[in-house]
Amino acid sequence: MRSKNYPVVLAGVVIMLCLGVAYSWGVFLIPIDREMGWGRAKISFSVSLLLLVFSVFMVIGGLLEKKIGSHKTAGIGGVLVGTGWVLASFAHTPLGLYLGYGLIGGIGTGLSYMPSVASGIKWFPDKKGLITGIIVFGFGFGTAFLSPLMTKLIDAYGWRATMAVSGIVFGFIITAAAQFLKPPTASNNSENGVKITNAAFSPMEMLLTNSFRIMFFTYFISMVAGMMTIGHLIAFIADKGFTAMQGALALTILSVFNGIGRIVFGHASDLWGGKKTLILLFTLISLMMFALYHAEILPVIYALSMAIGLCFGGFLAVYPALTAEYFGRRDFAANYGFIFIGYGIGCFFGPLIGGMVHDTTKSYLSAFNFAGALALIGAVLICLLLRRPLQRSDYVAQ
Question: At what angle do helices 105-123 and 332-361 cross, to 10 degrees?
Fold first, then answer.
């Protein structure tokens, strides 16, 4: 990597750290419920809505990135993220949270996320898995890094002040960091020794391929398993008779290794290929989900949380790299945006399925087994059906 390219990667990591606080919504859950009495289900819907809107606006972010540039698109996203958080801090009805944090914050997250990843892949097309992993590391690690700080601020100043100030700070940081997301020129790639000929699928061409359908569906599966664990891990551990602090430590471990997994498996996809890496990830997370319910001692629960975090993070690095590998870099931002909708749908349904199954059976056994079976299906689908799309006449040197 040439030193002049480091600011692009660093800016992407910083933006992702701010956006990744979406996974830290749990720190606001009890304080909001204690003051407003809306119930945890209504309050939790805010983050489900954010993740769903976020995934849909990844497509819009991809299209905007191509028209007005990465730095402008991510900058607009930063303003919306900050605005959404500030508006949510004044909410006196659940609808206020949904419109501020869920809708406006979700739109901003989608617009800022995609340019950060696309810029890294454009600068380092020969290391797209590793660079993607480093950048999206921030999104996974943001929870472990910022949750304790925000918890202390809530204890000291209340959830409204913490949310408002956080929105202003995050919005400013994202907008400032976005200005470093400048695209490389042809000479930049030449200087880096990069000569890559690859597919150039338009979004409409990609949508017609079987490869897209398999990647979309398996991305959905991976997030059902991952978010079911993230959303219910603390409650699951409490059901086992352990303390809230012990449950929080398990979530922290999962979050840390979520970030690490993005780098480890992103690099692995460069070495082994995205398809082989995904088969490994699905097989591992399937085994972990089958085993999790039966863990009775904390060290085993922590070890399983670590492994699930590694796999969950790995998916977020491998899928974008595989998208660039199969469909090209020319329309990567829009193409990955469509595939990423599978992520959003999985994130939306994963926690909900876990909660519904638990409420019906009074146990997480069926929920975790269901997620494990889905992951196993994902491994089989990728192994048997995922193929590189057929060559097209519009291949270009990128």
Answer: 130
